[in-house]
């Protein structure tokens, strides 16, 4: 057990707690910092982080979707599977020192508007604590891609390459409408004392936006089952199970504030001055490829855009490990060459 | 005021009430009939109908979406705008005798599974009452297209041409999932004593499935407004207004049973032995053009398929009056020639 406290002029992160020796293969910590939340003013928050891999390797921040957390992959010290392990090939991580955080707001204790720039400020505070001046790369997926874009805008000197998968510079108005209705469903459940069911339904609605008709057409029957005088569609049980599991581990406040955070995300493409690799999925109904094309056209640095096909739509970032591994091999090699 | 009662061997429709003289330009009536509901067994239901135009003109049943009713267009007798008037050019109706019905279940008094074949049986019972042996055509949009397809299957001798706009032989599993979640949102509202809000949210979710990202992208801003510590997306007020207006005029039972009815819709394309014109919208996210193509390929009669483009997606059947008028001019001319 060791504790480190580093001060910077703008922010004053203080380390609450660190688990894991400096010599172990991974460490976790909690850092309190006063974040100047863009829409809610200064708030003291506790940022939970994990770092994995030896200090001499290139440092990468790996940031996932809104339901991801600081535990990216298993290590000797923290042996449970991480979210990247769950989605496929995590071997590329072994060649890097990996930093990640639990999203600010994900524990449900902060009931205020949070945006992606606030998450970027939290990541910067953790880098201060860890003594990391600059990241060799950020690999961000979905919400993590938006946070990566925000970080590249607010801290351009602290990252050398950005890989943003299935994220754009702004939310699409149709996707925003979809999320707004999910938040209203949560509110209906909350006001009426059935928070779990409201959360479950909101998550199920979100699932539809993450997936595609192509997947559902191949996976589920068109004929419903009549059960107790009502029809149950073929996908209902699967959706309900996913919704209930999710509601059990998530607070309504966390869901609403992180969902809202996506809608508050807004950066100017030209303010991104870091070499960037963008990945879009042609079938993504949440982050349309056209929005990522517009972002690519506006970035003020070398940019490479890859548009991939997947029946999984937005969730391809989780469900297409081979394609993602290929993108990362190319992007991070390029980054490492640039840094060599 | 006049009353007519006609008996047929299978069904025994009895006329409850007729409004309007035989000599007036339009009449309305209510007919009780025992319908052998496909999933719920025999039920006595009251079918409300309207007929408009003189008896010597070609007879067309005009059937709209689940929120449509028997009042297709204004007449001298019933001067309020009908749902076809609201969507555009209703001049073609003047050349026809027009029959329509309120959907069985739309008044919320029948809490049992209803399907499109049951609606077709209700239409047939009304034709018995009106002394109409066979329709020159059915023009059905969305749910009305499904009912038209069911009628062509169960009563092939009673219709000479079918125009089915934005409807297929079965629901798509993704659209079914979307509807199932809407019904679950209604149930959340009902159980928790906020039926109006549950219905409103369900309708708003349905609206998203009727429209497209293209329309929302052109119509609404990406930046939300922060209002009392929460973000409100640009489309939220518009959606909420539509949802509330709809909840005010619809019962939860009607919504749930008609929504379910779409999921219970299932016909064998080869069982359609009536000349058919099909219209699909390329951007329709609820009834994908590929499903309508599969239907076209299977129909056992001359079939013409037109795929049209519209930023309104599924709602193009309401929002593209010129394109629809063009389709009808061609389809009904052809039908009238065939009948001449």
From TrEMBL, chains A, B:
What start and end residues bound the annotated signal peptide? none
Sorted alphabetically, which SUPFAM superfamilies does this protein's record hold? alpha/beta-Hydrolases
* GO biological process terms, semicolon-separated: homoserine metabolic process; methionine biosynthetic process
InterPro entries linked to this entry: AB_hydrolase_1, AB_hydrolase_fold, HAT_MetX-like
Q: Name one Pfam family in it.
A: Abhydrolase_1
Give start and end of each AB hydrolase-1 domain: 95-321
Q: Does the keyword Transferase apply?
A: yes
UniProt cross-references to Gene3D superfamilies, sorted A to Z? alpha/beta hydrolase
Alphabetically sorted, this entry's keywords are: Transferase
Task: Please give the Gene Ontology molecular function terms for this protein.
Answer: homoserine O-acetyltransferase activity
- Tell me the PANTHER family matching this sequence: HOMOSERINE O-ACETYLTRANSFERASE (PTHR32268)
Do you know which NCBIfam families this protein is assigned to?
A: PRK08775.1
Name of the protein this chain belongs to: Homoserine O-acetyltransferase
Q: What is the lineage of its organism?
A: Bacteria, Pseudomonadati, Pseudomonadota, Gammaproteobacteria, Lysobacterales
